[in-house]
Design a protein that fits this description.
The chain has 274 residues and is of the alpha/beta class. It has a single domain, classed as Alpha-Beta Barrel (TIM Barrel), CATH 3.20.20. The protein is 34% helix and 28% strand. The chain is built from ten helices and 13 strands. It has an eight-stranded parallel β-barrel with strand order 1-4-5-6-7-11-12-13, surrounded by eight helices. Helix 7 links the parallel strand 11 (190-195) and strand 12 (221-224). The longest helix is centred in the first third of the chain and has 14 residues, at 60-73. The chain is globular.
């Protein structure tokens, strides 16, 4: 059995020197959380299994800044690093890996150009190709109607999950589960799954979304969006069947340090790296 992973996420605003980490609620209401290199170093020392950097100001110029942030981070941080935001072509993957990252996460660019997944996985390997999916619930009255959407029964009714792009500012009408399956077939090595309905709410992950995604894929699924305490992370593993749990606020604001979360999970019988 593989150990479950605990992954702090750093949403990076690179419009200031050295960048800054911010956190929002449902992709809005942004507040300052710290500096990227400083936080990443703290999480590494506290036992994080991986660290995700998401460039929320992604542009060609900011990618250069992100590369410098990754280089500075990897001088003292020795766990896998994943970078997302502004990754649009195979050369972007290569450049970030040369800077010290181990993986790159792509959302918008992959949806607009699915062949990017095929191309990038051939250049850097599937293990370095993470697909970010920002999904929002869309409720339906009659699930029996013919549709390409994968509809599931939830506590609040039947729904499917809509993929968003451009940092949640635009919806595509693409079914998240079907899209994840296609990404796997094209060579993606992992799915970073964020519930837009839960993001920043601290109400817990969308377990129904996480579980159906995990059950339909053979590649790892990272649960993201909504964690407020260690119990939520336990539920992501036990109920959602996720392979890893990503969190931000509870780590940034020192509500539950990584080691505290791991100790809780160990007591609950979840295998984690201590």
């Amino acid at each position: 059995m593989l150990a479950k992973r605990i992954i702090p996420c750093l949403d990076c605003d690179l419009n200031v020197p050295n960048g800054r980490v911010v956190k929002g609620i449902e992709f809005k209401q942004i507040r300052y959380a710290g500096e990227p290199v400083e936080l990443a170093t703290r999480y590494y020392e506290d036992g994080a299994d991986e660290i995700v950097f998401l460039d929320i100001t992604a542009s060609h110029e900011r990618r250069e800044t992100m590369a410098e942030v990754i280089k500075a981070t990897t001088e003292n941080v020795f766990v896998p690093i994943c970078v997302g935001g502004g990754i649009r072509k195979p050369s972007d993957y290569v450049n970030m890996l040369r800077a010290g990252a181990d993986k790159c996460s792509t959302n918008t660019a992959a949806i607009l150009n699915p062949n990017l997944i095929n191309e990038a996985s051939k250049v850097v390997g599937s293990q370095a190709c993470v697909i970010g999916i920002d999904a929002k619930r869309r409720y339906v009255n009659d699930p029996s109607e013919k549709s390409e959407k994968i509809t599931i029964k939830t506590e609040k009714g039947y729904c499917w999950f809509d993929c968003s792009i451009y940092g949640g500012r635009e919806f595509t009408g693409i079914d998240a589960i079907s899209w994840a399956i296609e990404c796997q077939e094209r060579g993606a090595g992992e799915i970073l799954l964020t519930s837009m309905d839960r993001d920043g709410t601290k109400d817990g992950y969308d377990l129904e979304l996480t579980r159906v995604m995990s059950e339909n894929l053979d590649i790892p699924v990272i649960a993201s969006g909504g964690v407020g305490n260690p119990e939520h992370i336990y539920a992501a593993f036990e109920i959602g069947k996720a392979d890893a749990a990503l969190a931000a606020s509870i780590f940034h604001f020192n509500e539950y340090p990584v080691q505290v979360v791991k100790e809780y999970l160990t007591k609950k019988g979840i295998l984690v790296r201590c």
